[in-house]
Each structure stands twice: as structure tokens, then as C-alpha cells.
Design brief:
- GO terms for molecular function: alpha-L-fucosidase activity.
- Keywords: Glycosidase, Hydrolase, Signal.
- Belongs to the glycosyl hydrolase 29 family.
- InterPro entries: FUC_metazoa-typ, GH, Glyco_hydro_29, Glyco_hydro_29_N, Glyco_hydro_b.
- This protein has 456 residues and is of the alpha/beta class.
- The protein folds into 2 domains: 358 residues, TIM Barrel; 86 residues, Immunoglobulin-like, CATH 2.60.40.1180.
- It has 9 helices and 18 strands.
- The strands form 4 sheets. Strands 7-6-5-4-3-9-8 form a 7-stranded parallel sheet. Strands 10-11-12-18-14-15 form a 6-stranded antiparallel sheet, covered by helices on one side.
- Helix 8 links the parallel strand 8 and strand 9.
- Helix 4 runs parallel beside helix 5 and helix 4 packs across helix 9.
Length: 456
């Protein structure tokens, strides 16, 4: 178990602790997952109205970092926390258009969606029957909108575009009276865990388990095909005396409504962490297990006013680095309070989509290829071809005319992806030496040399 959580950012499970699933359907679906390479992650809930970090300001123990920039009534944090909780009463994203989001994602080159059905604050973005703290609840002004069941309409829209679905779900629920119960040891100064000892109050804990199972049953039964269950709040686990009995609900769901369901019980390890999820980081070395880095396009998972978004070169280099090491990139965009996606984020998404239309064949459906990442080079392979990326650090860098690709491959032809131009080459003791004709124009994100084991 990777138990470290630093300012809301989770550590990730070591590859040597990974347990491959025994279910052949899950193993098959993991191969599908490894083909996708690029997912769109979205953290969205009432908290976006304040532009603060999602959920964490409710935890007193995490207040020192999560409440930065909040100047609230002479430091009255209890008043602030109630204000946060009451954000459901003003959340009214009337410009939310799920079909438009799905089309933007598809055009941006994304292959699947990861959406926060519920974060740690307990607000449900679907029409659950378990609580009224939800998007369709009586206190939420959006409840009568035709898209009020946001999860339903978003999942349907993305499926209609042929994209996969991952349901993000927090195992912790800080709104639940069964998790943050009043009148207990930690009720007056809350941290991310339960306010009570689950061993001393088993009946209370069992109520929370039943509540959680029913929410998962709703999402995985009433909301169509779900490819991935993305479970957050890794501290909710048997090792921490918070056993939500995942086996019971996951195996029930796999037997009935979602055969082959991939589960990412992140940071916990064990049979339900079917893939590993580095957060805001990329491993230094390749990992030969299924993995996915979740990284923000801006600086925050939730919407932040005036945020800065990564430009194409940075995002593409990030994707190339991750794919070359065997992973997927879950690129996070936090939608605005009105239901639109930030304009700067849209620009980056559009640019990425245009880039992938040219270079996507070297990304999607590939597998890692030694030496993976070295110097300016990154490598992938697929179907008798090796794709060698030469990364340019900035637009002012001089275009290469000659270089040696450091790869051991019985190459019969080399072409430059994008132009399809044949490139002269010769094998050397250090790899494949290529000579590129003189080119004019702006320096691209990268050059991609397609090395084929067949004559071009």
C-alpha cells in the first residue's frame, strides 16, 4: 500500500507489488486500456464556484495547505466549511452541453473519459437515491434542467462518440453521517479518516459500507457500460481498518452488469488495483505493468480562476514520455461553474488533437520499445514498426539534418511521419544514422522517424 498523501497528491503503488488479475476478461480489457493512451479526466462539482481545491478544505488537518488564499470572516473556518457544504444551493451550470464536451474530447484525440461522480466532499453528480446531497437534490437549482443527471448525460454523450467510460468515485464520504459522524473522538477536528474507530463502532461502519455499496450498484447498473471504476481515497482500505468489502460489490457487478470491469483501487495494492495511477508525476523508468499518470492541463484538478494551461509542446512531450514508458496519460481539465470548458484549455485540447491527427499512429495501440527514453529520443513500436521520436525543446531549436537513432532494429526503410518522405540511413554500431533533407519553417514539437522491417 502506498500510504503517503501529501497536500492531496497520492503516492503510487510500486510495480513490484502489482498483482495481475486472474479474470481473463479483465486481462483482456487491460490490453484495450493500454491501447487507448489518452484519457480526459474531469474534476467537477459545486466547489468550482469558489475556484478552490476540491474537498480538501473541509479536512481540518489538511487546512494548512488546502485553505491557502481563503480569507474568511476573521479566520472562522467553521463558517467557511458550512459555506462550502452549501455550494450545492447555488450550483447551476446552465451552459453545460454534454454532447459538445464529447465532441471536443474526440477531436482532441482523447479515447476515454474519467469523471468525478463523487469526490471526498460527498456531493453526487448523479441522481442517486442514497442521499439528497446531489445534483438533482431539492436544494440544487440545476435539478430541473434537462441535463440535471450529469453523469447519465455525460456518459451517454461520450459513448455516442465511441469513447470509453471511467467512473471516478471517492471511497471516503465526508458528508455522510456514517463516515464523519458527530459526537466522536475526531468530530471537532476532522481529518481525512472516519471520526470514530471502526473497530469500536462496527454497526456505524457497516452502515457506511452498505451506503457505499448501494451508490456503486447504482452507478454500475443504471448508467450503461462502464469500462473502469476509478476508486480514490486510498486510505479507505482494510490496512487502515476501513474495509468497505470491495470483493463483495465488485464481484457482484462483474457477474452481472459489468463483466470485465477494470478497477483502479489506487494506492492500495492488491487484486483490485488493476492499474497503477501516478499523480502529477511521471515515473523515471518504464513500468511493465498497466499504469496511467493523472496530470492537470492547468495547475489544479478543479477549476481555478486565472489558471495557466500547458501549451501543445509541453502536453505532447508529456504524452510521448508517458507512452514511451508504457503508460497512459489522464489529462485533467476542470470545467467552469457555468458548465463550459475554459477557453485556454480548449485551445490546448484543439492543438493536441491536430497534432495527434498527424502523429497519432505512433501513439495509439503501441507498446514500449527499448531504449524507451534516452536524451532527446523516445520510442514506441507496433506491427513491425518502431517509432523514434526526436523531441525539440522549443520552437527556436535548430532542425536536425543528421542524427543517430540509438535503437537496435533490423531496419529496411525509414520515413518521416507527417510528410511520408523517405529518409536515407545506414546502420552503425551506435544505431541507425539518418540524414534528413534541409527543411524550412517552424521547429515542430518533434520529428517522428518510422523504422520499418519492410521495404518502403
Amino acid at each position: 500500500m502506498a500510504d503517503k498523501v501529501n497536500q492531496g497528491v497520492h503516492n503510487y503503488t510500486d510495480k513490484y507489488d502489482y498483482i495481475a488479475p486472474e479474470d481473463p476478461l479483465v486481462r483482456e480489457r487491460l490490453e484495450w486500456f493500454k491501447d487507448q493512451k489518452l484519457g480526459l479526466m474531469m474534476h467537477w462539482g459545486p466547489y468550482c464556484q469558489l475556484g478552490v481545491v476540491e474537498s480538501w478544505a473541509l479536512s481540518d488537518k489538511d487546512g494548512s495547505w488546502s485553505r491557502n488564499g481563503i480569507d474568511w470572516v476573521d479566520g472562522d473556518m467553521e463558517l467557511f466549511k458550512q459555506q462550502y457544504i452549501d455550494l450545492n444551493k447555488t450550483f447551476n451550470p446552465v451552459r453545460f452541453m454534454p454532447d459538445q464536451w464529447a465532441k471536443i474530447a474526440k477531436e482532441g484525440g482523447f479515447k476515454y473519459l474519467i469523471f468525478t461522480t463523487k469526490h471526498h466532499d460527498g456531493f453526487c453528480m448523479w441522481d442517486t437515491k442514497t442521499t439528497d446531497y446531489k445534483i438533482t437534490g431539492k436544494d440544487c437549482p440545476y435539478r430541473n434542467n434537462k441535463y440535471a443527471d450529469i453523469v447519465k448525460h455525460l456518459f451517454n454523450a461520450f459513448r455516442n462518440e465511441g469513447l470509453g467510460i471511467a467512473a471516478y468515485f471517492s471511497k471516503a464520504d465526508w458528508h455522510s453521517e456514517y463516515y464523519w459522524a458527530e459526537g466522536h473522538e475526531h468530530s471537532h477536528f476532522k481529518n481525512r479518516n472516519t471520526t470514530y474507530n471502526t473497530k469500536e463502532y462496527p454497526e456505524l461502519w457497516n452502515k457506511f459500507v452498505e451506503y457505499t455499496h448501494e451508490q456503486l450498484r447504482e452507478l454500475l447498473t443504471d448508467y450503461g457500460k462502464v469500462d473502469i471504476l476509478w476508486l480514490d481515497a486510498g486510505w479507505v482500505c482494510p490496512q487502515n481498518n476501513q474495509d468497505i468489502r470491495l470483493y463483495d460489490i465488485i464481484e457482484e457487478i462483474r457477474r452481472t452488469t459489468q463483466p470485465g470491469l477494470i478497477v483502479a483501487d489506487r494506492t492500495v495494492g492488491g487484486v483490485y488495483e488493476n492499474y497503477v495511477t501516478p499523480e502529477q508525476t511521471v515515473p523515471d523508468e518504464p513500468m511493465d505493468i498497466p499504469w496511467e499518470s493523472c496530470i492537470t492541463l492547468g495547475t489544479s484538478f478543479s477549476f481555478a480562476y486565472g489558471d495557466d494551461y500547458k501549451p501543445l509542446r509541453q502536453v505532447a512531450h508529456l504524452l510521448i514520455d508517458i507512452v514511451a514508458k508504457g503508460g497512459n496519460l489522464a489529462l485533467n481539465v476542470g470545467p467552469q461553474p457555468d458548465g463550459r470548458l475554459p477557453r485556454q484549455a480548449l485551445r490546448s485540447i484543439h492543438d493536441l488533437g491536430q497534432w495527434l491527427k498527424v502523429y497519432g499512429d505512433a501513439i495509439y495501440g503501441t507498446r514500449p520499445c527499448a531504449p524507451y527514453r534516452t536524451g532527446n529520443f523516445a520510442f514506441t513500436k507496433k506491427g513491425g514498426k518502431v517509432y523514434a521520436f526526436y523531441l525539440y525543446s522549443d520552437e527556436n531549436q535548430e532542425l536536425i539534418t543528421e542524427t543517430t537513432i540509438p535503437v537496435d532494429f533490423d531496419c529496411k526503410s525509414v520515413t518521416l511521419m507527417g510528410s511520408g518522405e523517405r529518409i536515407s540511413f545506414k546502420r552503425t554500431s551506435e544505431g541507425i544514422k539518418v540524414t534528413v533533407p534541409h527543411r524550412e519553417g517552424k521547429t515542430p514539437v518533434c520529428d517522428v522517424f518510422v523504422l520499418s522491417d519492410e521495404e518502403g
